[in-house]
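[Amino acid chain]
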Amino acid sequence: MKSSSAATATATAPRPGPSRGRIRRQLPSSPWLFAAPGLAIVGIFILYPFVSTVINSFTDKRTLIPGEYVGLDNFRELLHDDMFWIGLRNSTLYVVGVVPALVLLPLLLAMLVQKHIPGITFFRSAFYAPVVASVVVVGLIWVWMLDERGLVNAVLEAVGVGKVGFLSDQWLLLFSAMAVTVWKGLGYYMIIYLAALANVPRELHEAAAVDGAGAVRRFFTVTVPAVRSTMVLVAALSSVAAFKVFSEVYLMAGPNGGPAGEDTTLVMLVQRVGTGLTGRVGYASAMSVVVFVVTVALMLLVLRADRKEDA
């Protein structure tokens, strides 16, 4: 009787449901379904244009003409193109002039606004305001201020200095565009430094103060080593952004790059050569490949310098 009742209980007992592991094995593609929209956006707007640009750099494609394979002819032509070397020179100068300022000044600004004093929230918002403003609006405001009849020249003329050709002189125009880039980027990198400074132990500053270290010495012996990795990140980001600068110089110098095109940057040259009904898409693509290679080299150079300091 016991054996028959046990058999009946076993037969009537409900079967255990599928385990979680079995359910996961039945739906192996579910993670890819969630990632599909993001992957599609990356593929359509980043990967495809990148591959297409690399392919076009080896052709003589124009805006309305498919083009044929020409090998390395576009890159050989770049070596003898004076405007390409002018654009490369200006883009390199832009990196040299902008990156040190965007690495140091936002750090000093972050140290200033991190203090808990009345009204500091207003100054944080004021310093960050240029970041959220449109680069076109910012550029037009600075063009109006630096014009020969603008506010800056009016003040200089009132104090007896006289008018300065900020937008007509080759080098002054380029330096003015650098100033706009630094002014607009200060608030963005300040936020990054604020996050890094929040993780610096207060005890380190207190111990250095007890040892007799002043504010300047504490800055170089405590603050800088603590945020060095963040400084490397800011240097890498600002280097890439400065080398690919377009809007600031385009708005202040015009589509032709200022006087005789001497203020043209590489990205401006790509836009000028590759657009229009007769745009040389293949030649502009070759320039774009050069811009990509240089920006990657800049990032690797910054990261390698950081590793050498660690060693």
Notes: The chain has a mean pLDDT of 85. DSSP finds 15 helices and no strands in the chain.
